[in-house]
Amino acid sequence: MGRSSSFNRQQVLSDALDLFWSRGFYACSLKQLEEATEMHPGSLYYHFKNKEQLYLCVLEYYLEWQLQQRIDKYLIYSPSLQDLRRFFTSGYRHSQEVSYRNCCFLVSTSNELHLLSDDASELVKRGIQSLRKGFIEFIDEVINPKENSNANIDHEVIASELLNLYLSTQLMAKVNPNQHMLDKQVKQSLDNLFSSFPPK
């Protein structure tokens, strides 16, 4: 049964995200996108102009409705070191049915930036800035500066280390999705990074 004639933009973007996430930008055909979104070619072109415009809208949707919500949930609202670890692992831990989500969509997009316009690069930069900001807010909330033996701790540097760890972990999850091994690596890396910082 086809979708109702009323246009549900959020549902279309969600459906297209699943397909782009599983296949990537280049490998997705317009026919597959039409089937995934249950939109006729004319409607797809009317609302999004072309495949790349749809992809950019999907990436923006992902940044706002998935990545930012994970940042808020694990890094901003009552954060703890356990929440930080969950933020990392929630980027690659998914059921077998959606195993294609074993890598942050932002990282997947980064692998295809050479195929996309500068607008995609700007969106990826925006996503990375959101990650960095989330890590800085987490550090400001969790690390107690009065009890630190090292008064010169630079929260920007720690945030950069967390960002590098996050991006490399997501890339590793795409290449070798061994969740147990990734969990151990994340735990050990975070334990090492925060071992000298007394929590608040």
What features would you highlight for this structure?
200 residues; mainly alpha; 9 helices
Short description:
Residues 6-66 form the HTH tetR-type domain. Pfam families: TetR_N. The protein is mostly helical and 200 residues long.
Fold topology:
Blueprint (H helix, E strand, L loop, with lengths): L8 H15 L6 H8 L3 H8 L2 H26 L4 H9 L15 H6 L7 H25 L12 H21 L3 H16 L6
Helix pairs in contact: 1-2, 1-4, 3-4, 4-5, 4-7, 5-9, 7-8, 8-9
Structure report:
Pfam families: TetR_N. InterPro entries: Homeodomain-like_sf, HTH_TetR, Tet_transcr_reg_TetR-rel_C_sf. Residues 29-48 bind DNA. Residues 6-66 form the HTH tetR-type domain. Keywords: DNA-binding, Transcription, Transcription regulation. With 200 residues, the protein is an all-alpha fold. It has a domain at 59-194: Tetracycline Repressor, domain 2, CATH 1.10.357. 67% of the residues lie in helices and 0% in strands. The protein contains nine helices and no strands. Helix 3 crosses helix 4, helix 4 (51-76) runs antiparallel to helix 5 and helix 4 (51-76) packs parallel to helix 7 (118-142). It is elongated, with a radius of gyration of 19 Å. The mean pLDDT is 88.
CATH topology of the domain at 59-194: Tetracycline Repressor, domain 2
CATH superfamily of the domain at 59-194: Tetracycline Repressor, domain 2
How many strands appear in the DSSP assignment?
Answer: 0
What fraction of the residues are assigned to beta strands by DSSP? under 5%
The overall average pLDDT, rounded, is 88
Radius of gyration: 19 Å
Keywords: DNA-binding, Transcription, Transcription regulation
DNA-binding region: 29-48
Protein name: HTH tetR-type domain-containing protein
InterPro entries: Homeodomain-like_sf, HTH_TetR, Tet_transcr_reg_TetR-rel_C_sf
